[in-house]
Design goal:
By secondary structure, the protein is α+β, with helices and mostly antiparallel strands. It contains 3 helices and 10 strands.
């Protein structure tokens, strides 16, 4: 049996309350603070959403699915939405490879379906540099794992995972919402 030891994992969830989430996100007010000091390495339009109070009740069912997949009891955790923001990509926009440490859990809500030549979300495999040319030639390993965007789906992953968005080469507008969650076991 082939097995793998890793600390990287993710889940792409189709939330049971997808329409409620989309309605709240798309009708959200913006916060007064629209500064993004961490955004220097990318080309993207950012808008911080005023949804932190509503976040946990709105996303609870998706978080329950995620923690159930990990065989972890969500009731043992208190969760806090650290930040939530909308990303809008026009032609030539991108998001550089980055992580969200020291936060704990990160996510992306896809607001548009992926179309040809759109920027694509990916996880970056940092260990790829250690893979021999022969394994690479066989196509066994890759440096990127792309996730297909589908409107209303939520991608959840540990904040330490490296990820980015490839260059948006179309005139379609690509939109997502990103967020970070702090987990507390006290």
């Amino acid at each position: 049996m082939l097995d793998n030891i890793t600390h990287n994992y993710y889940s792409l969830i189709d939330p049971p309350n997808k329409e409620e989430i989309l309605m709240n996100i798309e009708n959200s007010e913006l916060t007064e603070d629209q500064e993004f000091p961490w955004a220097n390495g990318c080309a993207i339009q950012l808008e911080r959403l005023d949804l932190q109070e509503k976040f946990i009740p709105l996303f609870r069912s998706s978080l329950e699915i995620f923690f159930n997949e990990l065989n972890l009891d969500l009731s043992r955790l208190s969760l806090y939405c650290h930040e939530i923001w909308r990303n809008t990509y026009s032609r030539n926009f991108f998001q550089e490879i980055h992580d969200h440490t020291p936060l704990h859990l990160s996510g992306v809500l896809f607001l548009t379906d992926e179309k040809e030549d759109d920027g694509r979300f990916f996880f970056y495999n940092e260990g790829y540099k250690e893979v021999s040319r022969e394994w690479r030639d066989l196509g066994f390993y890759g440096d990127r794992k792309f996730i297909r965007a589908e409107r209303g789906k939520i991608l959840l992953f540990p904040s330490h995972m490296l990820h980015g968005v490839s260059v948006h080469k179309s005139d379609n507008i690509r939109k997502t919402v990103s967020f970070n969650i702090i987990l507390n076991t006290d």
